[in-house]
User: What shape does this take?
Amino acid sequence: MTVAVDKTKCIGCGACVMECSLEAIDLVDGLATPDPNKCKDLGSCVKVCPTNALSLSIPQDSKDELSSEVGSRFNLKEPLPESVSDYAHGNEKKTIRSQVTPVTGGDVWSGVWVIIEYNNGRVAPVSWELLGEGRKLADSLGSELCGVITGYQVDDVIPAAFAYGAEKLYVIDHEVLKDYRTEPYAEAITSLVRKYQPEIILMGATSMGRDVFPAVATKMQTGLTADCTVLGIDPETKLLQQTRPAFGGNIMATILCRARRPQMATVRPRVMEMPERVEGREGELIREEFSLSESDIRTKVLEFIAADARSAFLDKAEIIVSVGLGIAAKRNLVIAEELAEVLGATLAGTRGAVEAGWLSHDQQVGQSGVTVRPKVYIAIGISGAIQHLVGMETSDFIIAINNDPEAPILKVANYGIVGDLFQIVPAMTSEFKKRLQHGVAN
Assistant: This one.
């Protein structure tokens, strides 16, 4: 039988790769992976494994001899010796398939893709933000940055996609994609993925992204990390590091997709910087056919009803006045409303303020609400729980007003005002009225 690998213990040191005389073990995505066609159960790899991650079935009379050496060379509580942590460095026998030179359309997945969300004649701005972030990832991997556009009559979007940094664009332009529906959009994206095999795919954590991306991941039988706030490339394994709030926002978890491709992640709008738009920039355009017809789709769009909530565009607001439970009662919301009116700002709040009935859910900023990145964010009576901070900490300029000098929000604020908000906010409103002749911040 083939040697067994406990992937929870394997550290990818390469010791077993070097020790195996039959060259029956490779490192795949940083983990020891035996080849059942080559492995002869010799046991030499088991003896040198420093973490006791390898095992095999051996005769009872030889177990004692082998077990006395297995995993005995190193104390895992101590740092691994350099000879082990970099055991197979530079040796051609150490194969990490995720680092093999990419071959587009071959057996190796390569390239960074960004799904450009186009619906009802508009592009979701997060698509451009992700092209900027995708550029960093592609540079780290030494691969190309590609955009994907699926929809109907999308030619107007193509120049903008190149202007924001896409080197190559895959386009499916078909009448059946005129209105967004999960089934045809998932099929269109999946058909491109299967044909061109991107290593990483990103999409905004919008209503569309949260709907279609799980369907694509299911079709591809790969992993998907939702609502990421930070992305990066692990320098050793070259895997995509996908960081998101977890356990109710109490920790930030970094997730890796080791064994499946593509690596997929949705990213919250406004958490990444908007890249520079360079007009006239060009790239390669690839148009693909799409075979689905209207009769193949089980759902129909009968009517599109635009949102009319005050905060429908909260994620696009330039100035936000946000309140927390520190304002004490709904009747006190008026002081924040007056400040917002003077500044031409959008009113928002924390989850606590929403659950108290002071604001509607679409006005909520935070992990379970909307992620915002305004030019100015004024936080009134907000303590700064991590669930709220992840939704606004990338704002250009943060002003926090709180009577607790130890409030966490003061640590991320550009200006922190410690004192009675019922005195400070009206004073700010009065002063802004004097300075802004027309009562609106331009």
Observations:
- The first strand starts at residue 4 and ends at 5.
- The mean pLDDT is 82.
- The two ends are 73 Å apart (CA to CA).
- The first helix runs from residue 15 to 19.
